Amino acid sequence: NMITVYGIKNCDTVKKALKWLDTNKIGYEKRHIVDAKLTTKEIEDIYRKSGLPIQKLFNTSGRVYKELNLKDKLKDMTEKEKLELLASDGMLLKRPVLVNRAFVLIGFKEEEYKEKLL
Fold first, then answer.
1. Contact 38, 97 (CB under 8 A)
2. Are 21 and 12 in contact (CB under 8 A)?
3. For a surface tag, which of 2, 47, 87, 92 has the fewest beta carbons within 10 Å of its beta carbon?
4. Residue positions annotated with a catalytic role
């Protein structure tokens, strides 16, 4: 039941999540969210497994999100366009993205991690 964690090195939330996984002796593979070049299909899979509204997958505090003025643009985009946009730049994804076969966790909420992983 391999877990993959997508993130970036200098993100505090990712560091917290990895520290939590290490502390609880949960094995994972770390992938850089940009270098991983996730496809639209993979993003769609992440979205479906997360059970979240697609908006929640966006890193709304990120530079790219702000530069592209997505706060205003997203409401007029189709789901497909949003998925393609997320696939176009890993920095648009909220981090960390924890993926395993059964589910996906977006961001780091300790309660959620406990419930799903312990």
1. no
2. no
3. 2
4. 11
d(C-alpha 42, C-alpha 104), whole Å: 12
Distance, in Å, from the CA atom of 35 to the CA atom of 24, rounded to the nearest integer, reads: 27
Give residue 114's identity as a one-letter amino acid code: K
**Contacts of the segment 73-79: beta carbons below 8 A, 24+ positions apart:** 79/54
Strand partners, 42: none
Q: DSSP label at 66?
A: H
Distance, CA of 43 to CA of 25 (rounded, Å): 27
In sequence order, what are the residues at sequence separation of 6 or more whose Cβ sits closer than 8 angstroms to the Cβ of residue 68? none
Q: Is the CB of residue 97 less than 8 Å from the CB of residue 6?
A: yes
What tokens appear for 102 in the block? 């059964």
